[in-house]
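Can anyone check this?
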Amino acid sequence: QVQLVESGGGLVQAGGSLRLSCAASGFAFSYYPMGWFRQAPGKDREFVSVINWSDGRTYYADSVQGRFAIFRDNARNTVTLQMNMLKPEDTAVYYCATRRGPYATTSLNENEYDYWGQGTQVTVSS
């Protein structure tokens, strides 16, 4: 049974940093792409970042490029999103997700992700 559990959210001032973690279980983590998405109040869920399973290549939304970093630890079955220089518009519930696999291709499209965590709230005050 696939489980994804996010942690690390909270309240931070603009310009600050947070580190989100996603603990995965129930599948062969090393062979799955892992993504982060977010949903702000009143808005659709959107892509934030994703990391390949095969070569560790990373992708970012334009809005977070240069401020956020995604990395994975295959030994610990975790994927982390380091968020720096946070802005009020980064306020959202952040979700960890993966695709049905293994060996699934990386996608930036949330509709192609099959498994989701419960989300963790990030609030950035101005």
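Reply from J.R.: I decoded it. The chain has a mean pLDDT of 97.
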